[in-house]
């Protein structure tokens, strides 16, 4: 266990995938949240220094998993319960012949989830660390006798030295809902999207490849390749909203940007016994 990780998190709560040469990922069992991904010593993900690790509250940073509801939920907590339940490690990190390391986690319905959402389900989350990539695959299985509907998303927080210089490429001409503007439906006209204000936009039917330029130390870009995630959310709380967040330092909005892949515009329906997989592969490359 790397020194920083063992000091920051309780050892029994985390699983580390160590590729070597400073490349590693850390998964917290609370929410199966990837809380750190380093590429050759460079941290790619943002995790707030005020993040609360009490195994109750959602972790402010990394890659929380949203299921079965994106956003406010009349039946339970915002963004559902997957990110605030303890997941089970079903396959400890294993290295294949190419050096890639894979760990598998699962979450099944129980009395507490059924009190909120009376459905029988299983989630299987596979985390694979490659030399220059992190692959995340979420499989949703319907164990119920009837169909159910859900939305889901991977709420990725990227770190950056200056959010105003970080851009998201691949959203041009897409329709989006601007949640800051009371849900107004608009069209993106920029080839490179920069953020310099309170920003919360849900882009519909995004291409399967999105680029986020100048993350990590600012010298890196990430290429996100997604499958069965038609939508992309770009979010930054900016100054005023950050001041009202207990688990987020009021200045940290300057050093993070969420670029989240999801299936949130339209609900996904699974019949009894059906399953569906959702994935993103995040790869690092030199910044443009």
From TrEMBL:
Domain of life: Eukaryota
Annotated source species: Potamilus streckersoni
InterPro entries in the record: Aldose_1/G6P_1-epimerase (IPR008183), G6P_1-epimerase (IPR025532), Gal_mutarotase_sf_dom (IPR011013), GH-type_carb-bd (IPR014718)
Pathway(s) the chain acts in: Carbohydrate metabolism; galactose metabolism
Binding site for substrate: 60, 78, 83
A GO BP entry: carbohydrate metabolic process
Upper taxonomic lineage: Eukaryota, Metazoa, Spiralia, Lophotrochozoa, Mollusca
UniProtKB keywords: Isomerase
Top-level class of the enzyme under EC nomenclature: isomerase
Enzymatic reactions: alpha-D-galactose = beta-D-galactose; alpha-D-glucose 6-phosphate = beta-D-glucose 6-phosphate
Protein family (similarity comment): Belongs to the glucose-6-phosphate 1-epimerase family.
GO molecular function: aldose 1-epimerase activity; carbohydrate binding; glucose-6-phosphate 1-epimerase activity
UniProt function note: Mutarotase that catalyzes the interconversion of beta-D-galactose and alpha-D-galactose during galactose metabolism. Beta-D-galactose is metabolized in the liver into glucose 1-phosphate, the primary metabolic fuel, by the action of four enzymes that constitute the Leloir pathway: GALM, GALK1 (galactokinase), GALT (galactose-1-phosphate uridylyltransferase) and GALE (UDP-galactose-4'-epimerase). Involved in the maintenance of the equilibrium between the beta- and alpha-anomers of galactose, therefore ensuring a sufficient supply of the alpha-anomer for GALK1.
Its EC number(s): 5.1.3.15
Isomerase in keyword set: yes
Name used for this protein in its record: glucose-6-phosphate 1-epimerase
Gene3D superfamilies referenced in this protein's UniProt entry, alphabetically: 2.70.98.10
Active-site residues, as the UniProt record annotates them: 155, 260
């Amino acid at each position: 266990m790397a020194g920083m990780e063992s000091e920051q998190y309780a050892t029994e709560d985390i699983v580390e995938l160590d590729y070597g040469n400073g490349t590693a990922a850390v998964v917290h069992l609370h929410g199966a949240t990837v809380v750190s991904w380093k590429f050759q010593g460079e941290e790619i993900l943002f995790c707030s220094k005020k993040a609360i690790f009490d195994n109750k509250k959602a972790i402010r940073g990394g890659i929380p998993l949203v299921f079965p509801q994106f956003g406010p939920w009349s039946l339970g907590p915002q963004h559902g319960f997957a990110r605030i339940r303890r997941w089970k490690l079903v396959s400890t990190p294993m290295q294949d012949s190419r050096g890639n390391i894979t760990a598998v986690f699962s979450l099944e319905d129980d009395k507490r989830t059924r009190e909120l959402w009376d459905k029988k389900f299983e989630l299987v989350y596979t985390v694979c660390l490659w030399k220059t990539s992190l692959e995340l695959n979420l499989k949703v299985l319907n164990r119920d006798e009837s169909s159910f509907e859900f939305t889901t998303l991977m709420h990725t927080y990227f770190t950056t030295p200056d959010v105003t210089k970080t851009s998201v490429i691949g959203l041009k001409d897409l329709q989006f809902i601007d949640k800051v503007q009371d849900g107004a439906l608009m069209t993106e006209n920029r080839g490179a999207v920069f953020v310099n204000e309170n920003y919360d936009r849900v882009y519909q039917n995004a291409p399967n490849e999105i680029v986020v330029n100048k993350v990590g130390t600012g010298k890196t870009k990430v290429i996100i390749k997604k499958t069965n995630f038609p939508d992309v959310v770009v979010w930054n709380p900016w100054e005023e909203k950050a001041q009202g967040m207990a688990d987020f330092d009021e200045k940290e909005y300057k050093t993070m940007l969420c670029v989240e892949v999801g299936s949130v515009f339209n609900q996904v329906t699974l019949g009894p016994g059906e399953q569906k997989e959702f994935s993103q592969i995040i790869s690092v490359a030199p910044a443009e």
